């Protein structure tokens, strides 16, 4: 969740949605994203809407406190129930992200999940995930989450090398994320993810291979691997601008991606989205698939984004302003946009092309179809799926995914 919010039209004080947004809702999956905006320290590469205690001091008072945050977020879940009315859908996925959700007490996360269950109900096979910092959990914490209904957990590992973690300003100890996987398994978590980042300044191919080996050796059933993006305004961007650390070029990112795909395939992991690999269908992150497939989700928390039936909106960023809006009975929405049919067509191409199943060629305009034929002849799209009416990226196509998407959209 990037820190910058787009412009948009105002959100009504009661958060009401246009009637067309709720039409046909019963046929679409519904998920919840619950944002916890707190971090113990700010990582040098992070541009998310997160806050340390020092950053909040004097700028929100008791309203921005971690101590009562769960109650505030539960107020928004109750608002969602009012806005969505008698929507009959049980919630298919819940994802608690941040920030560092596990800075809150485990009981608070369970209460937040409980509010979703109470207001909407959960599907029998609902996927319930939380992100976690490896240093902020222990076996007792994990056992409380599991007993409270969480069945999937995602640990931020980033790297197994200390010097790489130092550049990223990550504070966990190498080896701790791997230990967390074992603790999560012992607590009864069926699905465990490790997040990795490649292309950090100073990282070598050997460093990256060591991180992959350590992650896979820990026994998760899902791994996410993202190229480092240096966002303007971050500490890392300032360090690169001052010449303290070098910028990693695109060729290095491509090489690291190829290494990742090779190593993970050898370990029994299949890619199902450009940056995500799983050992089975059950191991895939269903919540992220809601995003990628344009389903409905409600994002609760400061700066969180939501989408229901072609209406996208986003909340105010600051925890104090967020809490104040809810305390006064108002929606915390900062702005919204009504997506046109063309907007939704383009977004489907942008997102679905990144998936292993690809996107239907029927979404493409004539110019996009011509571009898809060029991509096919250039080895960027797979032949078999293309003959069946779908654009599916090859390995080389995944390396150039952004460029392929631009051509197909144009």
TrEMBL record:
What subcellular locations does the record give?
Cytoplasm
Pfam (any one): Radical_SAM
Q: Which CDD domains match?
A: Radical_SAM (cd01335)
Taking the first listed entry, what is the main subcellular location of this protein, grouped into a coarse class? cytoplasm
Per UniProt, residues of the Radical SAM core domain are 24-270
Assigned keywords, A-Z: 4Fe-4S, Chaperone, Cytoplasm, Heme, Iron, Iron-sulfur, Metal-binding, S-adenosyl-L-methionine
Q: Which SMART domains match?
A: Elp3 (SM00729)
Presence of the UniProt keyword Iron-sulfur in the record: yes
Looking up InterPro entries in the UniProt record yields: Coproporphyrinogen-III_oxidase (IPR034505), Elp3/MiaA/NifB-like_rSAM (IPR006638), HemW-like (IPR004559), rSAM (IPR007197), rSAM_horseshoe (IPR023404), rSAM_sf (IPR058240)
Q: Which Gene3D superfamilies match?
A: tm_1862 like domain
Asked if the Swiss-Prot or TrEMBL record annotates the protein with the keyword Transmembrane helix, the reply is: no
**Superkingdom of the source species:** Bacteria
Q: What does this protein do?
A: Probably acts as a heme chaperone, transferring heme to an unknown acceptor. Binds one molecule of heme per monomer, possibly covalently. Binds 1 [4Fe-4S] cluster. The cluster is coordinated with 3 cysteines and an exchangeable S-adenosyl-L-methionine.
Q: Which family does it belong to?
A: Belongs to the anaerobic coproporphyrinogen-III oxidase family. HemW subfamily.
Task: Read off the NCBIfam families from this record.
Answer: hemN_rel
- Could you identify this protein by its name? Heme chaperone HemW
